[in-house]
Amino acid sequence: xxxxxxxxxxxxxVHDRLAMSDVTNASIYAVTPRVQFAGWTEPxxxxxxxxxxxxxxxxxxxxxxxxxxxxxSLRNVSWWWQDLVDTSxxxxxxxxxDDGDSRFSEQQAELWTERSKPLQYDIVLNVDDPDDILPLxxxxxxxxxxxxxxxxxxxxxxxxLMDNLQITPDSLTHLHLCHHDYEQDDFDEDEPWITLSxxxxxxxxxxxxxxxxxxxxxxxxxxxxxxxxxTIAEGGQVGLHTQPKYIxxxxxxxxxxxxxxxxxxxHDGPVDRPLPMVNLPNLxxxxxxxxxxxxxxxxxxxxxxxxxxxxxxxxxxxxxxSEYNEPGDSDDEAQDYSQxxxxxxxxxxxxxxxxSRSNPPIRVLEMDFCDMRTKDFRYVFDRLPLLEDFYIxxxxxxxxxxxxxxxxxxxxxxxxxxxxxxxxxxxRKLRLMNCQRLTGPAIVDxxxxxxxxxxxxxxxxxxxxxxISGCVGFSPWDRHVLSTVLQNRLML
Length: 492
Prior knowledge:
492 residues
């Protein structure tokens, strides 16, 4: 659990900790008053005690240039010096943070940012491991509008100047974490460990913090992060990968998250357990791409406000490790053909768990090289009453799935049901791209029946935009027949 800390209360603890470090005393001796005692003779005043405060501050500032931690030692000399140091912001304008002890560095950072107000300050990071950067600078993010420069030292030397950036705590909205294996022989030493940049060229409204790391930091090392958009990108086939457990744990440090994008690489292996349950009350957009851990992640999220769900490149043709035995894991009764049966099941079961837990108001569902079993499509379609846009590419979905879009006549599926029902009752946009197993007549019949019924009963929630492309079973004649019903709503 993240521990809060008050600068004033623990000042002595910080001083004691620094006193045990290698802070040189040479600078202190140069300015510390030393008085000789001989028997009972009254101590003679040191000349330094007669200096005006302005000159003392100049001397102290010279000491700070040589040793940024000197303010803590200076303020311990006398009550007068303590008051002078504590009320001189220019003496606290360089924050030096060392890797290996992020909790103590957090205390130090909070003290320096408080004492340096309202001036800008520099951050010096003595790090050998890029994974320490985010834990070290995260306590300073709430005052990023006062940063002058970030300087990395240690194993690497880098500098990020803030002069041309107009970043505020509210405009730093994006965090991009890229996994990189720094042990690779072909690693380019000129590649940065950290950058700050606008999220798009030419605009100064929102900025991103970009970090290259080898592993995700533990949330126990982080304060709550205010990022609303987080991207985690794995390193590809020869790069580093991570476990869903560590992704989920990291997300617990982002309580204000509105958008999350995971870009992985298809690799499979046992899932480290237990998986934490992550509550993301503000998440609106979720995008999972090229990962074999979609089920683990989807099954572990509570997203009551999720509106946009993008699932892309999740299909794989090899068997996935699985330790699940949940309702719905049985074979698909439709027994439809699939080139990716294991990932179809994983995606469908993960989406089932997400929907059953959160009941999210999903309005957009895009599935790009991502598929499900027929019974999973039916489960999902039955439970997304607000879905407006459904987009699917390269699916093995059969006519059984497209038939789910037909109106359901009374008693057809439930003998007690005496009204006509409609799955996805608010569906307005439908895109079927490269769905090779769908036949033209099935598409024409299902959509014709649906549109005639919705046009008559619910014209505000009828299909307004339909695109069918690359489906080999959908012939020019089928397009002509469907266009007589949809007219200009069928896009070429």
